[in-house]
Design goal:
Blueprint lengths: L1 E7 L7 H11 L4 E7 L6 H7 L2 E6 L4 H7 L2 E2 L3 H4 L4 E5 L2 E5 L2 H9 L7 E5 L3 H12 L3 E6 L6 H5 L3 E4 L10 E4 L14 H8 L4 E4 L7 H8 L3 E3 L2 H16 L5 H12 L2
Parallel strand pairs: 1-2, 1-3, 4-6, 7-8, 7-10, 8-9, 10-11, 11-12
Antiparallel strand pairs: 3-5, 5-6
Helix pairs in contact: 1-10, 1-11, 5-6, 5-10, 10-11
The protein binds NADP nicotinamide-adenine-dinucleotide phosphate.
NADP nicotinamide-adenine-dinucleotide phosphate (NAP) binds next to helix 6 and helix 10.
Enzyme class: oxidoreductase
Function: Involved in the biosynthesis of the chorismate, which leads to the biosynthesis of aromatic amino acids. Catalyzes the reversible NADPH linked reduction of 3-dehydroshikimate (DHSA) to yield shikimate (SA).
InterPro entries: Aminoacid_DH-like_N_sf, NAD(P)-bd_dom_sf, SDH_C, Shikimate_DH, Shikimate_DH-bd_N, Shikimate_DH_fam, Shikm_DH/Glu-tRNA_Rdtase
């Protein structure tokens, strides 16, 4: 049996095992996927090899450590400098970022998008902004603090704080902050958000499983809204394809979605 895991801290609430195991069952793949609580991110490669995992996902707060520790980093992850997937290939630890393409897949249902505002400047914002830029979509970052904005500017992405932001019309506004995750906060001052959302058509929140204050406000201003469930699902489906060397069809995607919903 091939062994897989999700590394995180905390990891107890992760839904990846139930989603990936549902996928394995659906295609009769002889695999088992477990949670792995990792305290020291710098030990990620050592633990991955020591436990004979064939593949793994990596979640908060280890994505940057996983990037630094990998033998080979492929695709857009080289720019993002954070990875969420490890695969053992020819005794080398090969790393990928499936959050970025997973996000693009999740917003496909909105149709054509030309201009996006991303709220937040953390790891998820990096993945989203670079994925959008690769598709030649115009991206702007808006964050509460200045600290992390230089990363984006180096890629030619506009980035502001609340103080120096000029309101424009965006097709899509994305909340990639953790505001609303464990609290009822908005990701930016209410008046600023209202002035943005009254001109936009779509709002996406990376947070899943709840209607955040951001999505509630966006809906009240007639935006079409979507939470982060599909982003979680598709990053998992893309990792599953790497784990099993199979191409996911619709029935597999739906089996994994059902897996996500298991209690
Ligand atoms: N659906 C999915 O598959 C998926 C995947 C990945 C992440 N996520 C979600 O995405 C969110 C961000 O994750 P991350 O890993 O990118 O986090 P992170 O690296 O810690 O970045 C958090 C960002 O949020 C900002 N922020 C935090 N609290 C805020 C508040 N109260 N008001 C305004 N801004 C605030 C921070 O601003 P400063 O720079 O000023 O600190 C920072 O820019 C989390 O809610 C996570 O659950 C979902």
């Amino acid at each position: 049996m091939k062994k897989f895991a999700i590394f995180g801290n905390p990891v107890v609430h992760s839904k990846s095992p139930q989603m990936q195991n549902a996928g394995f069952k659906h295609i009769n793949f002889d695999g088992a996927y477990e949670k792995f609580l990792l305290e020291d991110g710098d030990k990620i490669k050592k633990e991955f090899l020591k436990n004979s995992f064939c593949g793994a996902n990596i979640t908060v707060p280890h994505k940057e450590f996983a990037f630094k520790n990998a033998d080979i980093v492929k695709g857009i992850a080289q720019k993002i400098e954070a990875v969420n997937t490890y695969i053992l290939e020819d005794e080398k630890v090969v790393a990928y970022n499936t959050d970025a393409p997973g996000f693009l897949k999740a917003i496909e249902s909105f149709g054509k998008i030309d201009k996006v505002l991303v709220l937040g400047a953390g790891g998820t914002a990096k993945a989203i902004a670079l994925a959008l830029k690769e598709q030649n979509i115009d991206v702007t970052i808006l964050n509460r603090s200045e600290n992390r904005l230089e990363f984006f500017r180096e890629f030619g992405i506009k980035a502001s704080t609340f103080n120096n932001f000029k309101i424009e019309k965006f097709d899509l506004v994305v909340n990639s902050t953790s505001a609303g995750l464990k609290d009822e906060e908005l990701p930016a001052p209410k008046e600023t958000l209202e002035n943005i959302l009254k001109y936009s058509s779509f709002a996406f929140d990376c947070i899943y499983g709840k209607k955040t204050p951001f999505l509630t406000l966006a809906k009240s201003l007639e935006n079409k809204i979507k939470d982060g469930e599909d982003m979680l699902l598709y990053q998992g489906v893309l990792a599953f394809e790497l784990f099993t060397s199979t191409k996911a069809d619709n029935s597999l995607v739906e089996a994994m979605r059902e897996g996500l919903k298991e209690k």
